[in-house]
Each structure stands twice: as C-alpha cells, then as structure tokens.
C-alpha cells in the first residue's frame, strides 16, 4: 500500500458520530500503512450540492437552454469550472482509492454527497460515451462505499421489509462508480450502529480496521464487461453471451439478471 493515495469523501454533520469514527479509523490505519490520505469533509467545506450554471465561470454556450452535462464538459475542457469542483477533480485524479463514508439516507447517499457526484463527475472528466463501465476513464482506480444504516441487517434481506441490499446498492455501485470505470470494492456496511451497545460498535470499527490492512489488494465486485453488449443494437447483451448463461440458475448481475434469480450477494461480496 506504500505510496498509494486515498481520497475519503465524507458526509456527516457531527464529529461525534459513528461515521466520523469510521472515517478517522480509515485515516489512521491507511496512513500508518504508508498511504497518503486526503479527506473531503463535505459539510465542513459547505460543499454546494446543486448542479447549476454557477458551476461555470464566464459565459455559457446556451443560456436559454442550459444543459448541465454539455456545458460543464465545455467548461472542463476550457478550464472554466469553479474552484471547488476543480479541487475535487484534482484529488480524484491523484487517488488510487476513493472511499465514500456516509450514513444511508432514504436508501442512498445524503444530498450533499450526491451533489459531489453530480458536480465533480463531469462529462469528459469522469466519463464519455466511449469511455464508461469496464472501459471507463477510472478503470485503474478503486472505489467503495462505507456507510451506516438505520435499519437492522435482517430488514435489508431478500425477505426483509426494506428489500435486498444488493438491489439497493445497484444504482450507486453500477450506475455511478462502475459507470465511471472504477473497480468497485465490496461495501463496508455498518448495520444500525445507533441501535446496538457501544461494545458492538467497537467490534464494528475493529472489523473495519482489520479489513483495511489488505483493502487495496482486494478483488473488485463482478460486473458484466462492456464488450458483452452490442452497441449497434441498443447495448443489448450479445446473443452468444446470453446463450452461454441460458442454462445457469442465476442471472449475470443484480441489474442484468436475464429474468432469472439474482446472483446472491452480487453487490456485497467479491467473487460471487
């Protein structure tokens, strides 16, 4: 891990929170292992969450019909994105691993972290039509989600009231991280820390500390490679790939399930 750079994008309002403790543990352990760790503390930074024309310095191409994706692509190419965005893009460019540390809000990331994703992962910088998914711009980088839940683990199961956590994670891990090319490591999920005793919270943090000893050497989650899809036919799975899996019990991934049972733990464990 020596000389590796890690960016922690952190979203919690309180320095006394479990999320803060998880963030601090990551900084401590990874720094001790020789990594250079940067933290973007979004609330402390008062990071702007809304994607607007104010993210561009100078004139935009089409003020009457403002298209955020196209306008920020042009601004990125011209060096006209605002300083808060370019600073985060610098951190991301330098990072070998990005850890998103947050409390799960409404089955996803807090608004301020979604704003970071919306504003920092701009078209051109983070993805293009040609460079996405397994052929994405960040294919040599790793990223992962580390988060707390308000609900017990049983509630996020295939039989639980909240539904399968693998399904909950698909939009974030496939639709954002993998879309930009990241090798996505299995999430670190701290189940309902506010509902357990302090000893149990200590055990959770110790497990996280232990995992970080070999974190950068972990294999990523499995996603279906881009070249398995036919770009000339609406990016449908190629017939030969479909036929190869026709007799198998499970689909390829949570999202590309082929009408079959979802592969167990597809978004929660590597190698499945």
Description:
GO terms for molecular function: dihydronicotinamide riboside quinone reductase activity; metal ion binding; NAD(P)H dehydrogenase (quinone) activity. By secondary structure, the protein is an alpha/beta fold. 32% of the residues lie in helices and 13% in strands. It has helices at 18-32, 42-45, 68-78, 83-94, 111-120, 165-178, 198-212, 239-244, and strands spanning 5-10, 36-41, 97-103, 142-148, 183-184, 188-190, 229-230, 236-237. Strands 1, 2, 3, 4, 5 and 6 form a six-stranded parallel β-sheet that branches. Helix 1 packs parallel to helix 7. The mean pLDDT is 96.
Q: Which shape, going by the Cα principal axes?
A: globular
Could you tell me the mean pLDDT?
96
Identify low-pLDDT runs: none
Number of separate helices: 8
Number of strand segments = 8
* H/E series: EHEHHHEHEHEEHEEH
Strand fraction equals 5-15%
Q: Indicate the radius of gyration in whole angstroms.
A: 19 Å
Structural class: alpha/beta
Helix percentage: 25-40%
Family: Belongs to the NAD(P)H dehydrogenase (quinone) family.
Catalytic activity: 1-(beta-D-ribofuranosyl)-1,4-dihydronicotinamide + a quinone + H(+) = beta-nicotinamide D-riboside + a quinol
Cofactor: Zn(2+); FAD
Subunit structure: Homodimer.
């Amino acid at each position: 891990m020596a000389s590796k750079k890690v960016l922690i994008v952190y979203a919690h309002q309180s320095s006394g929170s479990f999320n803060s403790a998880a963030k601090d543990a990551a900084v401590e352990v990874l720094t001790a292992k020789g990594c250079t760790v940067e933290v973007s503390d979004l609330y402390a930074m008062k990071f702007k969450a809304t994607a607007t024309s104010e993210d561009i310095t100078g004139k935009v191409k089409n003020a009457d019909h403002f298209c955020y994706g196209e306008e920020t692509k042009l601004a990125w190419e011209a060096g006209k994105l605002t300083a808060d965005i370019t600073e985060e893009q610098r951190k991301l460019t330098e990072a070998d691993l990005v850890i998103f540390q947050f409390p799960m809000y409404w089955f996803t990331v807090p608004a301020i972290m979604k704003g970071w994703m919306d504003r920092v992962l701009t078209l051109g910088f983070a993805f293009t039509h040609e460079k996405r998914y397994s052929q994405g711009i960040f294919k040599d980088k790793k990223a992962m989600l580390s988060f707390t839940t308000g609900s017990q683990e049983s509630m996020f199961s295939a039989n639980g009231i909240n539904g399968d956590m693998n399904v909950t994670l698909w939009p974030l891990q496939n639709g954002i991280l993998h879309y930009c090319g990241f090798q996505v490591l299995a999430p670190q999920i701290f189940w309902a820390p506010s509902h357990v005793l302090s000893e149990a919270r200590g055990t959770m943090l110790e497990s996280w500390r232990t995992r970080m000893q070999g974190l950068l050497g972990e294999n990523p989650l499995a996603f279906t490679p881009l070249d398995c899809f036919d770009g000339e036919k609406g990016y449908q799975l190629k017939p030969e790939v479909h036929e190869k899996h026709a007799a198998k019990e499970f689909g390829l991934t949570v999202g590309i399930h082929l009408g079959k049972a979802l592969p167990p733990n597809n978004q929660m464990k590597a190698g499945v």
